Amino acid sequence: MESLSQIISGCRNSEHRYQKILYEHYYGYCLKIVFRYIYRYEKAIDIVNDGFVKVFLNFHKFFCKDENDLEKVLMGWMKRIMVNTAIDELRRQNLMPEIGSMPDSIWEEPDRTQFADNMVLYKELISEVKKLPPSYRVVFNMYVIDGFTHQEIADRLGISVGTSKSSLSKARLHLQKFINRDISTVLYAAYK
Questions:
Q1: Residue 175 and residue 129 in contact, taking contact as beta carbons nearer than 8 Å
Q2: Which residue ranges form the domains of the chain, and what is each CATH number?
Q3: How far apart are CA 154 and CA 120, in angstroms?
Q4: Residues 90, 138 contacting (CB under 8 angstroms)
Q5: SS (H, E, C) the chain
Q6: pLDDT digits over 143-184, tens only?
């Protein structure tokens, strides 16, 4: 198999062979990112494909100083493109919630050393995130998971910084209530 440097160079030169290699290798990674925003599987696939078109058209803008960090930088760059593509779609839909469901396995981390109890709590928490109103969920994903600042969120969504902060606060409050309720249930069962 070619090195990542060769693949990137080939993609910069619009060589279909290298574009296909990159697409097939990072497709699952990109689909997981998009699923956090777009819950309908068919629509998420379309968004990923649109995102890859943007990746291939903009490879001339991709830059990495250190060859040792190449994959990490590439994945971060593609992640940003996929998130922005998903957000653009949500904006076109006026942040309407996506109807449909996504398999819970999409949220599972490949690390099998986690305790079963933690995995159950993780799945329940992700389920609660999916229940958030669309505007809260998008801001929560952008800020907590994808690392956007409130200013970047405001710029991307066309809202004020205050609205971004308020949406995040309300999302966190909802999730804290869920966690506190879950912990109370566990403690009650343990001391019963």
A1: yes
A2: 1-102 (1.10.1740.10), 105-192 (1.10.10.10)
A3: 33
A4: yes
A5: CCCHHHHHHHHHCCCHHHHHHHHHHHHHHHHHHHHCCCCCHHHHHHHHHHHHHHHHHCHHHCCCCCHHHHHHHHHHHHHHHHHHHHHHHHHHCCCCCCCCCCCHHHHCCCCCCCCHHHHHHHHHHHHHHHHCCHHHHHHHHHHHHCCCCHHHHHHHHCCCHHHHHHHHHHHHHHHHHHHHHHHHHHHHHHCC
A6: 888 888 999 888 888 889 999 999 999 988 888 887 777 555
Query: Which parts of the chain register pLDDT below 50?
Result: 96-104, 106-107, 110, 113-114, 186-187
A 10 A CB-CB count for 85 gives 24
Q: How far apart are CA 94 and CA 96, in angstroms?
A: 5
The whole-number pLDDT of residue 127 equals 76
81 near 58, Cβ under 8 Å?
yes
How many Cβ atoms from other residues are within 10 Å of residue 23's Cβ?
Answer: 17
Chain centre to alpha carbon of residue 8: 23
Give me 109's structure tokens. Answer: 């981390």
